[in-house]
Design goal:
The protein is mainly alpha-helical. It contains 15 helices and no strands. It has two domains: 1-45 and 338-366, no CATH class; 62-335, ABC transporter involved in vitamin B12 uptake, BtuC, CATH 1.10.3470.
């Protein structure tokens, strides 16, 4: 092969890697929306009217933007928690349960200490929510680290435990017993103290302090992962536990702490769901989704779309918050089922995972350029496949967030 051909092939590979790094994720959203338009046409709806209603409902005016930002805040915290766990090559699928435990811990704190001033009670309930989620995340983390229990199964099972704990507390010890209550017909707490409510930042909107807290936490977690020794250990353990153990790193403790931090972030999101809500109480319909609105699972989608990077997750959470908020307006304008937005999210996940496969193939091609076959043959037989890349073993999604800095 001529040098010109090798140069052209190398230039094409560089261009392909650039496109996959910067344009593939936005294009996956565009393609998902295009397929969503096809589905709306199949249902007899006008996709232009539908998407116009979605954009107007999510981004038109200060109130709509505030509602989108409020919806994005717990999504962002769950996504950032997923980023921490995935960097350690541990899969936290228990965001739903951790949100619930954070909401319960923070609500119990507010009920127990109703007379504290806002400047004390608000930080206290947020810390209590983080502590509740951290406990629920540390349990599967310790099981994985010390007993090699599959964390996907343990986190999902703990979701089932969390819903039972939540229903028991909200229908029993924490149930609303005031005169205007439903007397246990609806699992809910009493109206929480006004001093515990998250203050509204912009008048005449839903935008509260929790949105600003979520963004600050996301930036702080980025610093934690990429600029601290703890973050270095987390990434090292995620890339190779054996190498990290050989170098003297506390692998088991790092995995447990990473899951605890991930759970704490989800628990903080649960506190925002309670104290940033319009009802200012914890209420559910008997299911986790009735309280979380599926934020524990949607946060995984947000993290994947943000390339498992806490800073990109800010943008991703805002986009998906708009998709969820505007989805109601889309349903009203077109008459399509509410599951239409869920289908759009599923399409985005499919395309994001497909892009990960394309990234791996692009990197593998870069390792073995086309001109390599002209090299003198070696006495040792060539390997049957290119060497595995860091982070690709054990089904790791760490490679999906290989671009550390935005």
């Amino acid at each position: 092969m001529s040098r010109a051909s090798v140069a052209l092939a190398g230039a094409w590979q560089d261009r392909r890697r650039f496109l996959l790094s910067w344009f593939a994720l936005p294009m996956s959203l565009v393609v998902a929306l295009a397929l969503g338009a096809v589905m709306m046409l199949a249902l007899g709806a006008n996709p232009i009217s539908g998407y116009n209603a979605l954009i107007v409902g999510a981004f038109d005016g200060s109130y709509a933007l505030g509602a989108t930002a409020v919806k994005a805040a717990p999504l962002l915290l769950v996504a950032v928690g997923i980023c921490v766990a995935f960097r350690a090559n541990v899969f936290n699928i228990g965001g739903e349960g951790q949100l619930a435990m954070g909401g319960l811990a923070s609500s119990a704190t507010a009920i127990a200490l109703p007379h504290l001033p806002s400047v004390v009670l608000i930080p206290l309930v947020l810390l209590a929510g983080a502590a509740g989620g951290a406990l629920w995340g540390a349990i599967p983390g310790a099981f994985k680290a010390y007993f090699n229990v599959n964390e996907i199964l343990s986190t999902i099972m703990l979701n089932l435990v969390a819903v039972q704990v939540m229903n028991w507390l909200l229908a029993g010890p924490m149930v609303d017993k005031t005169q205007n209550s439903t007397y246990g017909l609806i699992p809910e707490t009493e109206l929480l103290p006004r001093s515990s409510w998250l203050p509204i930042i912009v008048p005449n909107t839903q935008l509260h302090l929790g949105v600003l807290i979520a963004v600050i936490v996301a930036v702080g977690v980025w610093v934690l992962i990429y600029r601290t020794s703890f973050g270095f250990r987390v990434q090292a353990v995620g890339l190779s536990r054996d190498a990290s153990r050989y170098s003297g790193m506390p692998v088991k403790r790092t995995m447990t702490v990473a899951m605890a931090v991930s759970g704490a972030l989800c628990g903080l999101g649960g506190a925002l769901l309670v104290f940033g809500s319009i009802s200012h109480r914890m209420v559910t319909d008997g299911s986790l989704t009735g309280f979380t609105g599926s934020d524990g699972f949607n946060g995984i989608v947000v993290a994947l779309f943000g390339a498992l990077n806490p800073l990109w997750a800010i943008v991703s959470a805002f986009l998906f918050g708009g998709l969820l908020v505007g989805g109601d307006a889309l349903q009203v304008a077109t008459g399509v089922p509410a599951d239409m937005v869920t289908a759009l999210e599923g399409l985005v996940v499919i395309f994001v995972v497909s892009l990960e496969y394309m990234r791996r193939r692009s990197r593998a091609t870069a390792v073995a350029p086309s001109g390599r076959s002209k090299a003198p043959p070696s006495k040792a037989p060539p390997p049957e496949s290119p060497p595995p890349e860091a982070g690709a073993g054990d089904g790791s999604l760490v490679a999906a967030g290989e671009r550390a800095d935005p």
